[in-house]
């Protein structure tokens, strides 16, 4: 499956952005979908995950209460709503699909990756 992430950009601290990730296949609805991010010079880190049905979500502590993941299986799309953005949220954000549906929190648990979209938060 091919994943296409979009919605990144430049935003001031305290602002909001919504990222989207659209999949090429209808089997999208059978995958858990995760979001990760990678800042310059740092490892790729887990942001959050949503179950295949949308019934469960899990977030990294660093974004809990500020970020929300949702999905629309009819549109083969998952979203990452980011509020109260901080400069430390600056990174390339990636969406990923997990066939095993394990609500994975590590990059190694994901089978397909999007190309990434850059989010820059200015102070």
What does this structure look like?
Helix content is 0%, strand content 48%. It is built from no helices and eleven strands. The strands form two sheets. Strands 2, 4, 5, 6, 9, 10 and 11 form a seven-stranded mixed β-sheet that branches. The chain has a four-stranded antiparallel β-sheet with strand order 1-3-8-7, with no helix packed on it. With 123 residues, it is mostly beta strands. It is globular and about 40 Å long. The chain has strands at residues 3-6, 9-12, 17-23, 32-38, 45-50, 57-59, 67-72, 77-82, 91-98, 112-113, 117-122.
Which helices and strands, and how do they pair?
Layout: E1 3-6, E2 9-12, E3 17-23, E4 32-38, E5 45-50, E6 57-59, E7 67-72, E8 77-82, E9 91-98, E10 112-113, E11 117-122
Parallel strand pairs: 2-11
Antiparallel strand pairs: 1-3, 3-8, 4-5, 4-9, 5-6, 7-8, 9-10, 9-11
Task: List key phrases describing it.
7-stranded mixed sheet, single chain, mainly beta, globular, 48% strand, 123 residues
The 3D shape can be described as globular
The total beta strand count reads: 11
What's the end-to-end separation, in Å? 37 Å
Main sheet record: 7 strands, mixed
SSE class: mainly beta
Write down the oligomeric state.
single chain
Helix content: under 10%
In terms of DSSP E residues, the strand content is: over 45%
Summed up, the helix count is 0
The overall average pLDDT, rounded, is 96
Contiguous low-pLDDT stretches (5 residues minimum) are none
Rg: 13 Å
N-to-C SSE string, H for helix and E for strand: EEEEEEEEEEE
């Amino acid at each position: 499956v091919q994943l296409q992430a979009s919605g990144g950009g430049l935003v001031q601290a305290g602002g909001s952005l919504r990222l989207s990730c659209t999949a090429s296949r209808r089997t999208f609805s059978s995958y858990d979908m995760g979001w990760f991010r990678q800042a310059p010079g740092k490892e790729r880190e887990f942001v959050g995950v949503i179950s295949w049905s949308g019934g469960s979500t899990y977030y990294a502590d660093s974004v809990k209460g500020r970020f929300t993941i949702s999905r629309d299986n009819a549109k083969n799309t998952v979203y990452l709503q980011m509020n109260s953005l901080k400069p430390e949220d600056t990174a390339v954000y990636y969406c990923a699909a997990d066939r095993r549906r394990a609500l994975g929190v590590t990059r190694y648990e994901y089978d397909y990756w999007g190309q990434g979209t850059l989010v820059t938060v200015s102070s």
